[in-house]
Every structure is written in structure tokens, then in C-alpha cells.
Amino acid sequence: MKAFPAMWRTIKVLYDELFLWVWLSVLWWIGTVLVIPAAPVAAGLHAVANRSANYKRVDSGFFWDAVKGSFGRSWLLVGANLLLLLAVVINIIFYANSQAGWARFVAIIWLWVIVLVMMGGQYLLPLFWQQDDPSLRLMFRNAFILALRHPLHTFLMLLFQIALIVISFATVLPIFLLMPASVAVAANVGLVTMLQEMGLADPPPPGM
């Protein structure tokens, strides 16, 4: 079980580069409010988080390079994921509001589907930078294969990210300052930790 060490490492990574993560979170909020740069800014944040998860040097320069180099592809990835979530939500609403008895059962199935979509979805932007093949189709395939092969790790890391969001909203100020980076770091550390266990990512440096 590597989920709990991944959670601890997430906190350590955030603490070690606190001012960088605050700055990148502020940029994420600005990009999200402006809408058009939202996806590439999110991709840029995950680029830095992925480097940190892989024990590489990080600074804001990697963020700007990623934003400039991923504008179109990041929107394709984020847009496809949003459409997938929207389709699942529409099905849940449709069957939940149906008067047929069997429809409620179908709605429950769709609720499980959205949990799976969220579990796999947390790996999409990390895989955007982790995998060598730039194929978006392969990113979706790998994300959901990993979620299905390692459901407990994936589910616990998803709950951890949700907890970070809830804590940020509850404390007001961190929602603006650190919430985006904390979720991105958790997703990337969770992915890299799992890949290390599978022998698909470089192990931690000695002493880490």
C-alpha cells in the first residue's frame, strides 16, 4: 500500500517549494478565470508537479515552457475529459428522474461510472507529461487501466485530493493560494509512486 506514503510525500513536496506552489496556484486561478488559457495553465502546473514527483529540479520556467508548448493539446485533453464527465452526469440525471423502477438501478450503475471516470481522470494531466507517447487516446487508455488495476491506491488518492479541496474551502485563504497546486502535486505523486511500484518509473534517489 503506497497511497499513504504518497500523501505524506505530497505534503513534503508542497512544503519544500511552498512559495513556488503558491505562485503557480495564483497563475492557475488567473488562467481559469480568463477561461481561454485555463487548460494550458493547468497543464503547465502539472508539468512542474510531474517534475517534482519525479525528483527533478523545478522552477517557474518549466511552467511557462509547458504553457506555451501545450495550448492545443491540453485543450483537447481537458475538453474530452469534461465532455466525458458531462455525458455521465446527464445519464445520471436522466435515469434518476425516470419513473420506471429499473431506471433507478441504471442510475446507480452510472454513479459508479462517474466514480471510475474521476478515478481515471486524476491521471490524465500527469500522464500528459509522464508518458513518452503524446497520443491523447493512449493517455485515456493508460489512465483507466491504471485506475482499474490499482483501484484502492487510486481511490485513496482521489479521496485525498477531495479532502485537500474541502480543507481549502473550509479555511478560505488556501483555496486561492495553494489548492490548485496541492491537487496537482497529489495527482502526480500518486501516479509516480504507483509507476515506481510497477517498475515503470525511476526509483527515488538514494536518501529520499
Ordered list of secondary-structure elements with their pairings:
Elements: H1 3-16, H2 18-34, H3 38-53, H4 60-69, H5 71-96, H6 101-121, H7 124-130, H8 136-149, H9 151-171, H10 173-177, H11 179-197
Helix pairs in contact: 1-9, 1-11, 2-3, 2-11, 3-4, 3-5, 3-7, 3-11, 5-6, 6-8, 7-11, 8-9, 9-11
Cα end-to-end separation: 18 Å
Number of E-state strands:
0
Number of helices: 11
User: How are helices and strands ordered from N to C?
Assistant: HHHHHHHHHHH
Whole-number average pLDDT? 94
Hey, roughly how much beta strand do the residues contain? under 5%
Structural class determined from secondary elements: mainly alpha
> Which spans of ≥5 residues are poorly predicted at pLDDT below 50?
none
Domains (count):
1
Spatial extent as radius of gyration: 17 Å
Q: Give the CA-based shape.
A: globular
The helical percent reads over 70%
How is the main sheet built? none
